[in-house]
């Protein structure tokens, strides 16, 4: 298993989406290996552009520096996901880092729904996400992370995982979410931390304050166990109303379970605020 590239990747991806007439298009795409984007497709019709990001090297190793920027022009409607789970390999001591910057203009909406990240034991990884919203823009985003390849019995006993998400509207910070975990630390096992669960996930909707009635509907949803016949401990979830939206938290054993729960929430919010049903990206079904 790789621990450090002979020459670490300095990947870059820059995407811009515009909305001429009644269609959202990928109007600008700049790529630098190992990052790439597939040709856009329109399973919902011309209004919503689905885009799939690729990491052609198969995973991230110590020393890699990846940069992604995405800009939505006014009225653009975009869903972005990844072609597969992101793998963060064991490092020999050097940090791998990915910086993502997103801007969403007036009346535009970005649904940022990457597939899960798998952080191998011994990985040292930092991810930073900054979202900048216009006054009436919408951002829906999730992050699903598995610490260690637990299906193989691997635990996250060494290494570091850092994540920081910021959502801004002009000079106003709407939401900030810093997270930091050290492999093998007490935080992974303690009740205030992860309580021994290998999967942590967050779903955020940022647009405007949501009514109490909608909050209670979301709280009424529950994760669907992918293998209900197996004797695994139940997952734990939480739902919080933000100043300008909603935040859902998950800690448990299954990335599929987290995704199934988030899809229920996504469906409700999409119908309520975007006036359309969800459309599952085809790469999730492969």
Protein architecture, described:
With 286 residues, this protein is mostly beta strands. It is built from two helices and 17 strands. The strands form two sheets. Strands 3, 4, 6, 7, 9, 10, 12, 15, 16 and 17 form a ten-stranded mixed β-sheet that branches. Strand 16 (236-242) and strand 17 form a beta hairpin. The chain starts with 11 loop residues before the first strand and ends in a 12-residue tail after the last helix.
Would you report the number of β strands?
Answer: 17
**Strand-and-helix sequence, N→C?**
EEEEEEEEEEEEEEEHEEH
Round the Cα radius of gyration to an integer and report it: 18 Å
- The DSSP helix count reads 2
Mean pLDDT: 92
Helicity, as a percent range = under 10%
Strand content: 35-45%
- The end-to-end distance, rounded to whole angstroms, is 25 Å
Largest sheet: 10 strands, mixed
Number of domains: 1
Which structural category fits the helices and strands?
A: mainly beta
Shape: globular
Segments where pLDDT lies below 50 for 5+ residues?
1-5
